Write the structure tokens for this entry.
Amino acid sequence: MGNQQLTVKNNSGGTISVCVFKRFDDMYGLQNVRLISLASSFLPMGSVSQFNFQKEYKAIVGKAGNRFEPSASSGNLTAGQTVTLDNYNNQVSFGQIESGGGNGLGIKTSAGFSRDSRDVAFGIAVGDDAAIVASSPQPSSNYSFRPQPAFYIAIGNAGKGEFVNDDMQRNAIAVDFSSDRMTATCNVDGTWSVTQG
């Protein structure tokens, strides 16, 4: 499916740190959702960073402490598909991908999934290793995610895999991908401009 490229330019007159993350239009069945930084960069005045993201989505599972550490992923998921998350002999894994999951990306947990797996988190990733969102799974549950086409840029320190705090989420700017290459520039007055290319 190709990649999407986001270029971030710092014309603010000072040094900034940025992180990039995604949100979902709809998240069904989830509690205590935490958004995850897909990428980050330290940008001295006048510098540029480029981020490349795959267009494919996968279900992921891993451990969540101060950051999310994926340990397993499913195959590529598209809208209307669901994958089962199972826990057998303390090994968490994904089953086959099935059709018929509505218009979102679906994850369901088996009846045997342990409630005691409090350090386990699951969610959706962009491509192979860039997690978007994490939540704690419950047994015999259905979850659905519908990704937005936008990426979000926030000023702050949240490295790849770290959780994006509420202040950063509130003050983030959306970069809608009307093409596969977009540029966001932080201006001298602290505003952002977004252009194609």
